[in-house]
Structure formats: C-alpha cells, structure tokens
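INFO batch 0412 | record 1 of 1 | parsing
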Amino acid sequence: MVANINSMFKEQFAKINDMSNLSSVAYLASLQLVHSIDPSISKAIIQELIDQRTNLKMIASENFSSISVQMAQANLFTDKYAEGFPFHRFYAGCDNVDTIESRAADLATDLFNAEHAYVQPHSGADANLIAYWAILSTKVQEPYLRKLDKKDITSLTTSEWNELRQLFGNQKLLAMNYYSGGHLSHGYRHNVSSRMFQVQNYDVDQHTKLLDYDVIRKQAKEFKPLILLAGYSAYSRLVDFKIMKEIADEVGAVLMVDMAHFSGLVAGKTLVDQYNPVEYADIVTSTTHKTLRGPRGGMILCKNEYKDFVNKGCPLVIGGPLPHVMAAKAVAFAEANTQDFQKYTQSIVDNAKVFAQACIDNGLEVLTGGTDNHLLLIDVSKLGLTGRQAEKSIRDVGITINRNSLPFDTNGAWYTSGLRIGTPAITTLGMGTSEMKEIANVFGKVLLNTNPDTIKTGKSAGALSKANYTISKSVISEASDIVTNLLNNFPVYPELDIEFMQRVFS
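INFO prediction complete | emitting tokens
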C-alpha cells in the first residue's frame, strides 16, 4: 500500500513546474501525514473540499484563504508557549516567535497605516474583549491611580479596589443594535459585553433602514458613553467614520470600530477617506479572515495611547498566543499589500452591487435598495417565507448562505425575515458581474417558487410552518444545473486534484 502511494506521489512530484503544482504537492504531503495517523480526518478534509467544490459559498463572513496561508499554520510553532508580547515574554526560548509576531504586526501596521498593531487575538470577539479592557484600563483605571498617587492596582487597599471596580461597572457603551446589523459582542444582552457596561443601542431609521447620524449624535449627548462603537455584521451601506469621530469627540467618548467584516476592503484601498475607520478611530478591531482572506483569527489596530494595555491582552484577557496562526496572518497581510488584492476588493464591491440590482430585477426586495460594501440583505417576508425556509431552499440548489434578522424583525432571531448574502468568496473564485446576474436569476427562480408548507400534526395543524416549505423538483433541477455549471467553471483550489486524492486516500 505504502509503495503504491509513493508511486502515485512520484507522478505528482514530476509535475512540479510552477507554484500551483508546488501548492498541490504541499497539500498532498500534509494529507498523507494526517492519513497515516487517522484516515478519518484526512477523508473529512477531502470531503470538505468536495463540499466546497459543489456549493457556492455566499456567506458574507467566509472566504477562501490561499494554500500558502494554510500551509503557514502547519509548523512547529504550534508547540510554543509565548505569553506576553514580542521581546517581553514570560517564557524563555521565544526568540523566533518574536520574529514572527513582530513581522506580522509590522506588516499589519504598514498595510493599514496604523500607529500600532496587535496580532494575537484568536477571533474578533477576543479582539473586542481586549479593546474594552484596554479602554477601561486607560480611561478609568489610570486616572484613578493618578488621583491616589499609586503606581499599580496591586497597591490598592480592598476598599480602593472595590471603588475602582464600581467605577468599571458604571461605564457606558453606545453601540449599533444587534437587530439593526450590529454584532453580538457589541453589548447584546446575551453576550458578556453587556455585563461589562451599561449599554444603549442606536438603530437604523425605521423607514430607510439607514443610520441617522443626527439621531446618534442626540443619543450620545444624552447618554454620554465612555465608548461609541461603530461597525456591523449585517449593514449594507458605508459608515461615515469622520462623523462618528466628531460625535465621539463632542461627548468625550472613545471611538471604537469593529471592522471585522470589511477590513479587507480597507486593506485593499476600496474604502478610503471617511469610510476608512483607521483614520479616525482610537481603536479598531477585526478578524483576519472574511474579506481580508487570511486565517481565522483577530487583530487590533490602535493609537499609541492604548498600546501598552492592548499588548497585555494575553495573558490578562485571552489565553496563550498561537504563533503558527500569526505566521499565517503575516502571509495574509503580505498577500493583501498588493495591487492584485486591491483589484480583488474592488471586484467584491462591484459584484455585490450588480448582484443586488439583479436580485431587485428578479422581483426580490433588497434592503436599502442595494449595497455599498460586500454584503446585502434580502427581505423574504414579502414572499410569505421566513429566513429559515429561504436559506434551506437556496441550499437545496447548491448555494450556501445564512438567514439573518432584519431591523425590527417580527420573526425573531431564529426564523428571521431575511437573508444575508456576501460576494467575497465567489469573487475569490474569479467570478464577475455576468456570473452575479446568473446567480441572482437562480435566487429569483428559487425564492419565488418556494412556499411555506402546512403543519400536519399537533395543535397547530393546518397553520403555515415557519421551517418547512415546498418547491417543485423541476425548479430545483433547473437551478441546480446553473449552479453546477458555475462551480465547474470556477472551482475552488483548481490546483488540487480531488480524483487523485480520493484514489490515494480511499
């Protein structure tokens, strides 16, 4: 068996004449090592590749990282403890971790033109927790210590410490409502962030579904938050961070921006001037995947005022750094600092705009009438559907999206009235505006022919279901054929030979 596998690999090695083939061999070699320990894991990896080859990925928060990014994570740095930050570690033997982390931070600083970068966060949520802690430490703790003429919180008496804790708990956060497009970690009541602050939310306008900066300004003046938080997970228009900074300054607040969703558009210079939060915010958090197309992880960009506490995020807020992931972040930042990446991010937005208009042309209701970024929201309630029904019927034809609450949604957070759709991943595949129109036609065909099923049993028998639905097999077949053709023309990781993998690792 081993000899047979080796023979098969030699065939592949002989094909190495460019970087794509080199990527293929690297991928195969890693799979072989995994397969030798646990074949079920290697088979699951291959099956995921098959699944992604057979479904269009249009989840706004997902993308395809390069094989170079993926391979950068597969290294012995996974074995290192490296609490602290570059050149200030709690463990000896971290010299090479210092090299990797400082390189990733330098690349991020250069890419975003930031004063300081911190690349340790494991996720966007972790980055937000560190940012909250750094702001509280800088704006509440340090003035309190200065007032008492004390250098460190360890020197506080019990009563002084309790007084400081009360000061922490009395601070205010003003953030976009989760149901208007904000994020769970922005003070949503079920999230730990709501326990850290007194939270108020600002909403989009009930009629336009757009942010109203005059309303936000009035609310901020009345509430007087420590932190004014901007950023979104489901808002299809641009945010004017210049105005948000003006509001923050008027009320003495720290402007924090969560750009997890659109950081790639900032890196790629598609969002500039007042739409670039790094220019105006005191502290900016982000994931490193999504539009940035790196490994799953997070980062923080901040003014120098906050860097000392941000750098202490581990071990004071999150667990140990992941040096192997930071290596992958460095590769992703380097990939993003190219003209090709700039073209890519502009194509993301162009594709989203064309797709939104094509959906409208197909009889679908797009919130705000379109999009300015990488995502859009479709209201399916006018079709008599819930988001859950629509999500599943679209999945039936090979397109993966997610249902999403809409502003003032009467269907709640589980069933929802909307769909959230993004173009980053399909743009990575190389699709353009003509493909967007084809996909929009599929959405129209499927959604306009999906109907809620009736509940068959129980007390609600005869009522319309919020989960189940009906759609004709002919519609599914016709739409699936279009999707399959698109997937065949734009395969994910075309350099990887699935048939060969299945033969070798069967």
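INFO post-check: Residues 124-148 form the longest helix (25 residues).
INFO record closed
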